[in-house]
Amino acid sequence: MFRDEPARQTLAQFDYWCLARCDDGWRLECAGTGKVQRALSNLLGHDLDSQLSLPDGSLRAAKFDGDRLHSALIVAKNRPVEVDRTHLAGLIGVELDAAGRASVLAGRAAHGESAGPIICSCEGVGRYTLLNALQDGARTIGDLGDRARAGTNCGSCQPELRKIISEFNESVAQPAKEEAV
């Protein structure tokens, strides 16, 4: 997560990258082999305010302007990054106390609901957000786009959205079938 848009020449150092605008900054998903560490250093610089290295090889780092989050970096080695991207994106430019700073490195809110595993990468929409929208009456991909912005950019998540809608409809229909017996 970055307040300022990362330079495209820096992003070109990754084997894969996807950059999406969020409310007060940019969300970057990237992957690669080789000189990933150097590319990551180029993105954040060396003047980090908070950093946490975990035994599994993952790294979490943050940079602040005063008490406001400027950028956050969450790196996982040989596995997907497990963080609440929606929560982190919402913290860019926000003044944070000690608990808020800790939530950046944790990758999730200290309290409240998580958006869940990200399904729509472009808009940062998680599975739990989609399930909540379905419980509130959404029935189609268009409805999910209207209520949660999922599937409204590149469309690559639409097969997964169809699957979630189908699974939700089956779970709702299952109790009705059992009651009819």
What does the model show?
- α5 crosses α6 and α5 crosses α7.
- By secondary structure, this protein is α+β, with helices and mostly antiparallel strands.
- It is globular.
- It folds into 2 domains: about 100 residues, no CATH class; about 60 residues, Arc Repressor Mutant, subunit A, CATH 1.10.10.1100.
Features:
single chain; 181 residues; Arc Repressor Mutant, subunit A; two-stranded antiparallel ribbon; 7 strands; 21% strand
Brief rundown of the structure:
The protein is an alpha+beta fold and 181 residues long. The chain contains 7 helices and 7 strands.
Topology diagram in text:
Elements: H1 8-11, E1 16-22, E2 25-31, H2 36-44, E3 50-53, E4 59-65, E5 68-75, H3 85-91, H4 98-106, E6 118-120, E7 125-126, H5 127-135, H6 141-148, H7 158-180
Antiparallel strand pairs: 1-2, 3-4, 4-5, 6-7
Helix pairs in contact: 5-6, 5-7
User: Strand-residue fraction?
Assistant: 15-25%
| Poorly predicted parts | none
> Count the strands?
7
What general outline do the C-alpha atoms trace? globular
Order of helices and strands: HEEHEEEHHEEHHH
Q: What is the arithmetic mean of pLDDT?
A: 83
* Straight-line distance between termini: 51 Å
